[in-house]
Amino acid sequence: LSDTNSLTIGQKLILPIREISPSKVSHYIVQKNDTLWLISNRFGVRVQQIISKNKLNQTKNIVPGQRLQLR
């Protein structure tokens, strides 16, 4: 581009992605096929911590789209 402040339709942009440490994530949106165990393992928190922070019980399933507090 001659003008670095302009974009054109169809132009491809490369944007840097900032990595976030799993230990700093405080909330998570449940995805299809997630389990409490998988989420706890991914973010380094105990299953029981997720259960208590979100007032879940052992028999209630999590569902995609559900927002969980992790810390």
List the helices and strands and how they pair.
Elements: E1 27-29, H1 36-43, H2 47-53, E2 67-69
Antiparallel strand pairs: 1-2
Structure summary:
With 71 residues, this protein is of the alpha+beta class. Helices cover 21% and strands 8% of the residues. It has a two-stranded antiparallel sheet.
Q: What do these coordinates show?
A:
The chain has 71 residues and is of the alpha+beta class. Helices cover 21% and strands 8% of the residues.
Structural class: alpha+beta
Query: Order of helices and strands, N to C?
Result: EHHE
Mean pLDDT: 87
Instruction: Identify the overall geometry.
Output: elongated
Measured distance between first and last alpha carbons: 45 Å
The side-by-side strand order for the widest beta sheet comes to 1-2
Beta-strand level of the residues, as a percent range? Answer: 5-15%
By DSSP, the count of extended strands is: 2
Instruction: List the total number of helices.
Output: 2
Helix content: 10-25%
Feature tags:
single chain; 71 residues; alpha+beta; two-stranded antiparallel sheet; 21% helix; elongated
